[in-house]
């Protein structure tokens, strides 16, 4: 697979003029240049342009909905919650993996290019085949495993606050795939388990109540596991939940090298992106 490039966040044509319009409380005419491809009928993808009215505080998802509901009902993309929770509307917006429901028009400008996530088969327009992504997710056993007897008082398995903090960050994942599909290691090798699967493994490896951390570490101790990560940080920059993905991957690598999660000191930096 060729290794495409991903632009850095914040690169947006016309964003300043849209922000000025926002201050004036004005509508803007927004041009959406949208990737269109139906493999059943099209030989190759094309980009189609649509112009819509949008408030600077509208989300990109609102602009897409305008196209779909009033101009071209064949436009296809996933969305559900519209509030950054379900993770279904991850797509490339001006070259950057984002959730369409979390990105404001004023932050991307009045000329917006919309494309599907890279590295997955396109089913139609922005809808990609997520099954390989979920297969990698399932491969790390993303669920609590504890075969020990329940506590004698019949109540919950207790955990200290500091034990809980070790994996607090990685509980926030919404499985949007923005991280994995922004990773050059994944573009080059789609057998790489990918950052999202490692994040979800981390969530259980560092959970003091779980009994299968070593098994997960063995799964990830592989050339297609954590060692494929080259610490490029694209994943951390792409994550809409601001999970410190590169830090989590580093902690999993350390746990493998030190013989278990209990031998790793997990520190929580004050600033979310300070430690990647
Ligand atoms: S780690 Fe972040 S970017 Fe990756 S799947 Fe989870 S929420 Fe999405
Ligand atoms: S529609 Fe659910 S996260 Fe955007």
UniProtKB/TrEMBL annotation:
Keywords from the named record: 2Fe-2S, 3Fe-4S, 4Fe-4S, Iron, Iron-sulfur, Metal-binding, Oxidoreductase, Tricarboxylic acid cycle
Molecular function GO labels: 2 iron, 2 sulfur cluster binding; 3 iron, 4 sulfur cluster binding; 4 iron, 4 sulfur cluster binding; electron transfer activity; metal ion binding; succinate dehydrogenase (quinone) activity
Entry cofactors: [3Fe-4S] cluster; [4Fe-4S] cluster; [2Fe-2S] cluster
Signal peptide: none
InterPro entries, per database record: 2Fe-2S_ferredoxin-like_sf, 2Fe-2S_ferredoxin-type, 4Fe4S_Fe-S-bd, 4Fe4S_Fe_S_CS, Beta-grasp_dom_sf, Helical_ferredxn, SDH/FRD_Iron-Sulfur, Succ_DH/fum_Rdtase_Fe-S
Subunit structure and binding partners: Part of an enzyme complex containing three subunits: a flavoprotein (frdA), an iron-sulfur protein (frdB), and diheme cytochrome b (frdC).
Protein name: Succinate dehydrogenase iron-sulfur subunit
Organism whose genome encodes this protein: Longimicrobium terrae
């Amino acid at each position: 697979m060729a290794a495409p490039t991903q632009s850095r966040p914040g690169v947006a044509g016309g964003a300043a003029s849209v922000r000025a319009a926002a201050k004036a409380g004005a509508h803007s005419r927004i041009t959406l240049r949208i990737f269109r491809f139906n493999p059943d009928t099209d030989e190759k993808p094309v980009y189609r342009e649509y112009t819509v009215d949008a408030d600077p505080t509208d989300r990109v998802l609102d602009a897409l909905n305008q196209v779909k509901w009033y101009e071209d009902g064949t436009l296809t993309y996933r969305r559900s919650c519209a509030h950054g929770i379900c993770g279904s509307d991850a797509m490339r917006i001006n070259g950057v993996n984002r959730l369409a429901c979390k990105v404001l028009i004023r932050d991307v400008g009045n000329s917006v290019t919309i494309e599907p996530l890279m590295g997955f088969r396109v089913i139609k327009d922005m809808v990609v085949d997520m099954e390989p992504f979920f297969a990698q997710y399932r491969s790390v056993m993303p669920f609590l495993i504890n075969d020990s007897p329940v506590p004698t008082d019949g109540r919950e398995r207790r955990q200290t606050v500091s034990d809980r903090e070790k994996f607090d960050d990685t509980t926030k994942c919404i499985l949007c795939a923005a991280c994995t599909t922004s990773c050059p290691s994944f573009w080059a090798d789609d057998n790489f388990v990918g950052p999202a699967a490692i994040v979800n493994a981390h969530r259980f490896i560092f959970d003091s109540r779980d009994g299968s951390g070593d098994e997960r570490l063995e799964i990830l101790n592989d050339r297609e596991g954590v060692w494929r990560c080259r610490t490029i940080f694209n994943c951390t920059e792409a994550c809409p939940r601001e999970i410190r993905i590169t830090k989590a991957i580093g902690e999993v690598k350390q746990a493998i090298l030190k013989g278990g999660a209990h031998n790793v000191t997990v520190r929580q930096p004050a600033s979310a992106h300070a430690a990647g």
